[in-house]
Write a structure and sequence with these properties.
Layout: E1 2-3, H1 20-30, E2 35-38, H2 45-56, E3 61-66, H3 72-88, E4 91-95, E5 104-107, E6 110-114, H4 120-125, E7 129-134, H5 136-152, E8 155-156, H6 163-174
C-alpha cells in the first residue's frame, strides 16, 4: 500500500509503504514495454515530462483523459501540453460523454490504482492512497477491461487551435501547481 506522505523511503518494488508520488514516478521511469495512464486531472509538469521521456525512449505510451472535464482549468493546462506529448509519440485519447475517474497507471506488468490524481493537490498536499500490483495477469486484465474498451470509444486528443484557447492553456499550465 502506498500513501502520499509516508515516513518510509525506498522503491515501490522493495518496500511495503512509500510516498505515492514517488512510486508513480518510479513506475513511469521504469516502463520499458508499455505505459498506459488514465487519470481525470493530469496537470503535474514533472509527471507529464516523465511520460514524454518514456515515449522518447521508445516506450509505447497511451494517456486516456476526459474530452470534457469537470475542471476546465485542468483540461486547459493539460491540452497545453498535448503538443509535447504528441511530438514525443504519446497517444492521447479523449473519452467522450463521461468524466474519467479512474486513477490507473500500467507500466509493463506493474499496475498502480487508487485515489491519486496526477495534479499538485493529490501529489503534494492531499492524503491519497494507492496500491501497486506486480502481476502480468492483473496488467492484462486492466488492459482488457479498462484501457482497450475506453480507447476504442475515444477520439485522438488534439491541441487547442484558437489563440484564445492557446493563451488559456498557457495561463493554466503556468498555474498548474495551484490546480
Amino acid at each position: 500500500m502506498l500513501g502520499s506522505s509516508s515516513a518510509e523511503k525506498g522503491s515501490p518494488l522493495s518496500s511495503r509503504s512509500v510516498a505515492a508520488s514517488q512510486a508513480i514516478r518510479e513506475q513511469i521511469d521504469g516502463a520499458r514495454e508499455r505505459l498506459d495512464v488514465m487519470n481525470p486531472y493530469l496537470t503535474d509538469r514533472d509527471i507529464i515530462d516523465r511520460i514524454v521521456a518514456a515515449a522518447r525512449r521508445g516506450v509505447p505510451v497511451r494517456v486516456v483523459v476526459s474530452k470534457t472535464s469537470n475542471n476546465s482549468q485542468a483540461t486547459a493546462a493539460l491540452k497545453h501540453r498535448y503538443p509535447d506529448m504528441l511530438d514525443a509519440g504519446v497517444e492521447v485519447w479523449e473519452l467522450p460523454d463521461t468524466v474519467v475517474n479512474a486513477k490507473v497507471v500500467v507500466a509493463d506488468d506493474v499496475v498502480s490504482f487508487g485515489t491519486v490524481n496526477l495534479d499538485a493537490w493529490a501529489l503534494y498536499r492531499n492524503s491519497e492512497i494507492m496500491m501497486i500490483a506486480r502481476s502480468a495477469e492483473t496488467a492484462a486484465l486492466i488492459e482488457e477491461r479498462l484501457f482497450e474498451p475506453d480507447v476504442a470509444r475515444s477520439s485522438p486528443g488534439e491541441p487547442r487551435s484558437g489563440s484564445h484557447e492557446r493563451f488559456e492553456g498557457w495561463f493554466w499550465n503556468k498555474l498548474a501547481r495551484l490546480l
